[in-house]
């Protein structure tokens, strides 16, 4: 029988083998400090039209309600920072969506990690989560010692910045737990707050999701409110502004995941190319992509909203 420390070390080594950039472990317990924050955020309506955020309140705070007998939450990060970026003077896509849909790519690696744990240790019950269930992933990453929540509410790591996905394994296996990350290294910096085109970043380390460009271009299914007409900064899917200006992202290094490589020619599309995109081209360019979530109709809605109005001659 391996010791708790040996079990934890094995999981971290396997995570590195599978390409995860960091791995930490926390005790599966009730997130007492997060409960009032989440309740107030919802009460303030900062979730916009994302009504699903109001569901499963208790499950968001207690992983033992998601996995019976849960003992540990294994938090992992996976780098997606690209080597190449879109050309200038183009409508913009968030960097995480350049390649194949991260939900499947990262979750496949999580399943492989869970299989390795079972092969090495024995019968282990658990579930894999990649941004698709009621899990407060940034809170768990902090508790597992992976980093701290920046003023833009994204997790930041000293050596890597913030361009990475978070994922979790909630398992009924007792493990040695890591120390929570308790130091915030943002200091007096307010670059993300100052740069946000729609002023969605609040001064209390929270986001007004109803103003966030990522919400407006992806989650919002209705028309984009006219008040944002000149505030979209040419983003047609998601937004990276708060990350692009963050000083910690000077440490970002290009990912090594082939499935995150952008589709051929996508990065070179001009604004005119995007304005003339057909549904057939959309399906070809964004096959297996997270951009499919907004659909062709959603992407064209976004483009039509942000493109300049042609003045009559």
Automatic annotation (TrEMBL):
The protein's annotated pathway: tRNA modification; tRNA-queuosine biosynthesis
Localization per record: Cytoplasm
Binding, [4Fe-4S] cluster 1: 186, 189, 192, 246
Binding-site list for tRNA: 221
Keyword rRNA-binding tagged: no
Primary enzyme class: oxidoreductase
Keywords: 4Fe-4S, Cobalamin, Cobalt, Cytoplasm, Iron, Iron-sulfur, Metal-binding, Oxidoreductase, Queuosine biosynthesis, tRNA processing
SUPFAM superfamilies assigned: alpha-helical ferredoxin
Cofactor binding description: Binds 2 [4Fe-4S] clusters per monomer.
Entry's EC annotation: 1.17.99.6
GO MF entries: epoxyqueuosine reductase activity
Residues involved in [4Fe-4S] cluster 2 binding: 196, 212, 239, 242
Cofactor: cob(II)alamin; [4Fe-4S] cluster
Residue stretches making up the 4Fe-4S ferredoxin-type domain: 177-206
UniProt: cob(II)alamin binding residues: 60, 131, 155, 166, 214, 239-240
Catalytic activity: epoxyqueuosine(34) in tRNA + AH2 = queuosine(34) in tRNA + A + H2O
Assembly with partners or alone: Monomer.
Function noted in UniProt: Catalyzes the conversion of epoxyqueuosine (oQ) to queuosine (Q), which is a hypermodified base found in the wobble positions of tRNA(Asp), tRNA(Asn), tRNA(His) and tRNA(Tyr).
PANTHER family in the cross-refs: EPOXYQUEUOSINE REDUCTASE
Family of the protein in this entry: Belongs to the QueG family.
Name of the protein in its database record: Epoxyqueuosine reductase
Native source species: Tenacibaculum geojense
């Amino acid at each position: 029988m391996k010791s708790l420390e040996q079990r934890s070390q094995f999981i971290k080594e396997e995570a590195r083998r599978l390409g995860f950039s960091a791995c930490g472990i926390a005790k599966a317990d009730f997130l007492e400090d997060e409960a009032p924050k989440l309740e107030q955020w919802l009460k303030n309506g900062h979730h916009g039209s994302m009504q699903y955020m109001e569901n499963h309140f208790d499950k968001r705070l207690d992983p033992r309600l998601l996995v019976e007998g849960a003992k540990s939450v294994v938090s992992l990060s996976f780098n997606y920072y690209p080597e190449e970026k879109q050309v200038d003077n183009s409508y913009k896509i968030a960097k995480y969506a350049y390649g194949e849909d991260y939900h499947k790519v990262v979750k496949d690696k999580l399943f492989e990690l869970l299989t390795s744990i079972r092969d090495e240790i024995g019968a282990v019950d658990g579930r894999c989560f990649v941004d698709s269930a009621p899990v407060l992933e940034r809170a768990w990453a902090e508790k597992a010692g992976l980093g701290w929540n920046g003023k833009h509410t994204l997790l930041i790591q000293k050596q890597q910045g913030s361009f990475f996905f978070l994922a979790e394994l909630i398992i009924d296996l007792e493990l040695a737990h890591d120390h929570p990350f308790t130091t915030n290294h943002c200091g007096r910096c307010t670059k993300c707050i100052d740069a946000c085109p729609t002023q969605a970043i609040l001064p209390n380390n929270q986001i007004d999701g109803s103003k966030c460009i990522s919400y407006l271009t992806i989650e919002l299914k209705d028309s984009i409110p006219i008040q944002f007409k000149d505030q979209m900064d040419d983003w047609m899917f998601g937004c990276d502004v708060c990350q692009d200006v963050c000083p910690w992202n000077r440490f970002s290094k290009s990912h090594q995941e082939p499935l995150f490589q952008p589709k051929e020619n996508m990065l070179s599309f001009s604004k005119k190319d995007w304005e003339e995109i057909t549904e057939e081209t959309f399906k070809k360019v964004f096959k297996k992509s997270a951009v499919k979530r907004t659909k062709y109709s959603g992407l064209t809605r976004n483009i039509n909203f942000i493109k300049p109005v042609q003045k009559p001659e």
